[in-house]
Design brief:
- The chain is an alpha/beta fold and 454 residues long.
- It has a single domain, classed as Amidase signature (AS) domain (Amidase signature (AS) enzymes, Alpha-Beta Complex).
- The protein is globular and about 60 Å long.
- InterPro entries: Amidase, Amidase_CS, Amidase_dom, AS_sf.
- This is Aspartyl-tRNA(Asn)/glutamyl-tRNA(Gln) amidotransferase subunit A.
Length: 454
Amino acid sequence: MVSYPSTALAMGEAIQHGKLDPIILTRQCLAAAKESDAVFISLTPERAMFEAAAAARRQAQGASLGPLDGVPIAWKDLFDIAGAVTTAGSRVLTEKPAMYDATAVRHATAAGMVCLGKTNLTELAYSGLGLNPHYGTPHHTPGQGEPRVPGGSSSGSAVAVAKGIVPAAIGTDTAGSLRVPAAFNGLASYRPSQARHSRQGVTPLAHSLDTIGVIAQSLEDCLAIDDVMRGEEATTRERADPERTVIVLDTAYLDDERIEEGVRQNLERSAEQLINAGFHLIRRKLASVSDTLHLIQHHGWLGAAEAYTEYRELLESEAAEAMDPRVRQRLINAQKMAPDSIVTLYRQRRSLQAQLRHELAGATLLSPTVAHTAPLLAPLEDNPERFAEVNLATLRLSMVASLLDSPAIALPSGVDKNQQHTSIQLTAPCGEDEALMRVALAASDHLGFPAANQ
């Protein structure tokens, strides 16, 4: 663990005021990254030190590029970084270095952020658990117990932040791949509505569902970095007024036996904290949520069909034998999806989006992010059937926001009796990102919880 401010905005402020040297900071972050096990697939030390030196010169000249100038950041290895190979967590994709930065990388660089390197992930970003047999599986398990899964697919991004190597890291989310690893590691994350970002230069999994976003120690960091990835200035947003804000807690989650007791208890405590802070909290069931869960259960996951289409040629090639067998089997299984199920998923998606908007009517949905805490790692490495079962259970709740293209923010809600992290999720209808941000910022001010023993 290196010693510097824990959040990106605090780092940026310290750099601006001459209290933190971005060159020393970057050198420390690179050293920590090199010592980390399976967190990074590759580092970009020459670029990082060049960018840190440029930030130091700007600070000395009083010419800062903004509140994140000189702050290190890591990128999930789906993002193209000029001169580096984009592996997508695989051994079978192109070995040619990218010629250009992905749009999000280019925008963050223009805001002065320092590119540290590329983080590990599930192969092709196709799992909610984060296992990778090619580059190792990172973890940052609280307490002294056996290793637990990091969450996926943005596993390395979450663990890089949890270990304090970087204050924030970038990932992607197709079915929950930002929110799940954030939940398992006690971090904040933001899944934007898909139209908010360009995905140019980002290796796809499912075009209709993929989003890019941030995992960080604080929600403020997530939103500021999201701004600069869009090529905008980092914005200080006004928090929503709790007394004029309605939050809906879907009671179906409280009745669901698949929700672990610690997750349920911390959800209830978070709800009470919001009530005590003046938020108007309504407990009722939302048909749009239950209908979405039923649709996925009955017809399958739309992302599976799109992922199979994306990687069909790879599956039919000799290179498929070198893939993670768990990922390969999931892609092969998607061949069995009936055409009428795929069409139904596309059609119902639009009507369910409208249904959620009507039911919420300006309110924000409160739910668990994941139904359980991080499972033990070893049993899932050894048992493919158990892996498939737990992976589906892990992604079940986060799939709702993904299918409906809803902006969703995951926030830590505490720990369970085993000192494992739990998480809550705040969700709004598609496109209502800014309103969700203001509510989530206000809510996060009032959510206090015991920290895990790390």
